[in-house]
């Protein structure tokens, strides 16, 4: 039968198995909720159901990694750390992506560190504050701080530092430093 014929079966019985002759061809069974394709050749960790590739192991706890056999250490890789809901895609040159440097709900694209919870980093940024964002070799250690630019850093909470070699110290909460070589300490 075709996919259209299979899907047109009204109230299929749980466990009903049919052979579908058009793409995706193969045996299909009804589990009481939805149709699932039997994959006899599947001996690996992944399967495709309804066009979604998923692992066949413990989806509640398993981490996901391509390009390496671990989440930590130096290597190019793409991973999702399930326990921290953290995502990385790019390269680590040392310990930037080791467990201690992976914040809950954090993201790194390219290279960098995002150790703060809900932080984001790219292009060698270091985001250690919670909800901090660091771009292009900058350091964003204040909570909810934003930095962009080589040698730029922000330790103040809710602060913004953009440009080259701008610095906002720990007393620079809600401060803004733009341009080049500007420093805010209080």
Automatic annotation (TrEMBL):
Query: Which superkingdom, per the lineage?
Result: Bacteria
Q: What is the official name of this protein in its record? A: Trimeric autotransporter adhesin YadA-like head domain-containing protein
Which source organism does the UniProt entry give? Winogradskyella luteola
